[in-house]
């Protein structure tokens, strides 16, 4: 009886890694060992950066809100504090979008926040 050496399972595992390494440069897309190392690292980066992206976008939204609020004479923290006091629960993504695309309603929010600060 011939010796079983896991042929199809191993081949499928290697094919899966090489498929993930498609588009990598040089030996990292053709040699299994280098491809596996590159794929493991890339998956680690992908996992990490899915979380980092959330942080980056939040920073961007805050910067946009701050710039729009300062143009009207309020700081970001004063603006957010005034909104909280007025029981207006809009997230930063929506506020940032309003600051860019809908200035009238953003100015109305600024006035609401300003009036609730005093």
UniProtKB/TrEMBL annotation:
Signal peptide: none annotated. One of its GO terms (biological process) is ribosomal large subunit assembly. It comes from the Bacteria. One of its GO terms (cellular component) is ribonucleoprotein complex. SUPFAM superfamilies: Ribosomal protein L20. Keywords: Ribonucleoprotein, Ribosomal protein, RNA-binding, rRNA-binding. The keyword Cell membrane does not apply. One of its GO terms (molecular function) is structural constituent of ribosome. PANTHER family: 39S RIBOSOMAL PROTEIN L20 (PTHR10986). Belongs to the bacterial ribosomal protein bL20 family. NCBIfam families: rplT_bact. Binds directly to 23S ribosomal RNA and is necessary for the in vitro assembly process of the 50S ribosomal subunit. It is not involved in the protein synthesizing functions of that subunit. This is Large ribosomal subunit protein bL20. The lineage of its organism: Bacteria, Pseudomonadati, Nitrospinota/Tectimicrobiota group, Nitrospinota, Nitrospinia.
